[in-house]
Every structure is written in structure tokens, then in C-alpha cells.
Amino acid sequence: MNYFFNKYSARMNRLIPTDIYPVQYGEEQCTPSHDAGPYIRSNFLIHYVYNGTGILIVNNTEYRVRPGQLFLIRANQLAYYKADSKNPWLYRWIEFNGSMSDQILSIFDSPILTDDTDNIIGNALLELVKNGDMRFERLMQKFWAFIASLTKNLNSSYETRSEEYVRLAELYIKSNIHVKSPVNKIALHIGINRSYLSRLFKKYKNVSIQEYIIQLKMQLAAQYLQNTDISITETAQSVGYDDYHVFYKAFKKHFNMPPSDWQKNQHSGIIFAPNDK
């Protein structure tokens, strides 16, 4: 895949959870009439236009895109886009994929979406791109903040307000997976009572909210130990455990072995599943 200019970019791989993950991102101040395509990509791609204008052509339809609008190119979709000859656009973009992509992108009734949220979406993408190449946990925090901005006003995919509360809790947990996330802090962020959130999570996820957080942290820790050279202590800190012994106990309970043994077995090609209850 060839991009004509990346001021900032990052490529992610096995470290990313499969529900939705960033592939690469960047920004571009295009020259007059600069074009891209027609291309077919295997991932989803969103551009947010901050200045200038241009056109997008998908499904034999031409769209004029202005500042404050996003344009979407879906996976396996033929697309062509071109900067205006007199007022070329400045955009920031992100390429991503994962099983949640179609659900999140249901906000797009057409390939063009106007940011009617006081630039929340544009600011979230700017915050991601301007940081350049980041540590994994920092990138995922910024990425989930961007996803949260996209879904801020999306209620149609969720049958009840209760389900939306659970979704918002999941977004908060995933964007803060590298730090401690007490249940009362999550509930406060959403604006509901802690005990009510706990009941909702148990109802819709069939697991307590604390168990859900631990499972995500352990999965991420295992991915670190398998795919990076950081120490076990650094891994513990990267998923929000200041106390190594607490992390050690949680990891051993989840995988039926200490993190040192798990890491050794992974590097030797032996794969162990977590301790499913």
C-alpha cells in the first residue's frame, strides 16, 4: 500500500485486540489537484478535512468534501479522491480494521459525515495523529477516545439506554486499560450509580465489571510478554499494576502459570489458553 506522504505513522500488528484496531495514521497538506487512486484497500479508512476542499468518488458518485467533514472508504471498496486545484485540503486520516468496524461505521448513511459535535471527532483524531509514534498503551488510549467520539451520538445500534451504559463503560475501560480503573470512577465518568453499573455489566456481559477489567489486562499483558522485549515488571506497570505481586497472582490465576513460565513457553512455541471459568 503506497501513501504519498506520512508526517506521522504507526503500524500495529498482533498486539492489537481484534475487535477494532489501528493499522496506520497520518496527516497530509495536499498540493493543488493532488489525487489518490482509484484504489481498493483491505482496511477501512477515514479522512477528516480540517482546511481546504476536495472530491471523493465512490460507487460512481462524486462528493464534494469541506472542512469539518469526514469521508469514509470501506474495506474492499474502489475509491478515488482529489484535492481542489485552488484550495487543496489538509486532512488527517486513520486506517483501521476489526470485527467491530461495521457496527461503528453504521453512523455513516453515506460516505460523508459532517462533524456536528463541536469538532469532538476532529479534535480526537488530531490528538491521536499529533503524538506520532506512541507506546502501545498510549496509542490505544488515543484510538479508543477517537472511537468514542465517533459513537457519541450513536444510539440506534443499542436497544436500550442500559446497553449504551455498558458500551460506554467498555470504551472507558479500553481507553484506560494501562491505568487503574475503579468501578466508581467508571460509573462517575458515565454519570450513573456504581451498583447500577455493576448490575448492568453482569446482566449484559455475564461477568462482573472487575472480572472484565482483569481479563482485558491479562490478555494485554500476555500479548506484551509474547511480542515485546519488556520485562515482566514493566509489563505489570503497562497494564496498571503498581504492585508486581498483585499482578503475578492475577496472571497465574488467569493462565494457570506464572508470567515467567508463560513467556518462556510462548517463545518456545507452546500455546496455552487462559483459565476459562
In short:
This protein has 277 residues and is an alpha+beta fold. 40% of the residues lie in helices and 20% in strands. The radius of gyration is 21 Å and the shape is globular.
Give the helix/strand class.
Answer: alpha+beta
Number of domains: 3
Instruction: Give a short account of the largest sheet.
Output: 5 strands, antiparallel
Indicate the CATH class of the largest domain. Mainly Beta
Q: In percent terms, what proportion of residues is strand?
A: 15-25%
CATH superfamily of the largest domain: Regulatory protein AraC
- CATH fold assignment of the largest domain: Jelly Rolls
Radius of gyration: 21 Å
Question: Number of DSSP strands?
Answer: 9
User: Average pLDDT across residues?
Assistant: 81
Relevant terms:
10 helices, disordered N terminus, globular, Arc Repressor Mutant, subunit A, 4-stranded antiparallel beta sheet, alpha+beta, Jelly Rolls
